[in-house]
Amino acid sequence: MAHHKAIYPGSFDPPTLGHLDVLTRARRLFDEIVLAVGRNPDKGGPFIPIETRLSLLQDLVDEIVAEDPSLAKVTVAAYEGLTVDFARAQQASAILRGIRNTTDLQSECQLAITNRQVADIETVFVVPGEAFAYTSSSLIRQIAELGGDPQRLRTMLPVNVIEIISARQKKDA
Questions:
Q1: CA-CA distance, 107 to 137, in Å (whole number)?
Q2: Quick one: pLDDT at residue 171?
Q3: Can you give the CATH number for the domain in which 56 is found?
Q4: What's the N-to-C CA distance of the chain in angstroms?
Q5: 117 within a domain of the structure (yes/no)
Q6: Is there a domain that residue 147 lies in?
Q7: Which range marks the domain in which residue 54 is found?
Q8: Which residues are catalytic?
Q9: pLDDT of residue 72
Q10: Mean pLDDT by 10-residue block, N- to C-terminus, for the chain (173 residues)?
Q11: In this structure, what DSSP letter does residue 97 have?
Q12: In what order do the strands lie in the sheet with 32-37?
């Protein structure tokens, strides 16, 4: 019987409830998922250091897996370079991506077709719940960096992420 392993790549900077919703939904589709934390060169330097994100994501993943251990195993790993190279190294059969809207769909389809041509790997799209249709790490970063109240983001962020953002804002003040 085939083992269906996916990588769920992203910068997860910061991790959002939308990311976790996609992961939770995808656990029903695969046997194993690697939440792959990479660097997006388009986003500049990290908002939350990679070591902190890895630890934070591991805690969040542990909570999700504990809710239903019968679903897909999830591991958290950092990677550098091309996502398709990491997927091959992990022997993944698919790349998992969340799609929030038609703007995401357009860019993600282009990337999925390229990944299939270049690396012969399929991309599986999962649509998050409607509550997360407009949750964006980039927008959250901007709000936090400009001094917005992280408590106002509690419908978009896990509590421990809000705590990290609050601590960073106090340190930067």
A1: 17
A2: 83
A3: 3.40.50.620
A4: 56
A5: yes
A6: no
A7: 5-133
A8: 19, 43, 100, 137
A9: 97
A10: 92 95 97 94 83 96 97 97 95 95 88 93 94 88 91 94 91 77
A11: E
A12: 73-78, 32-37, 5-10, 94-98, 122-126
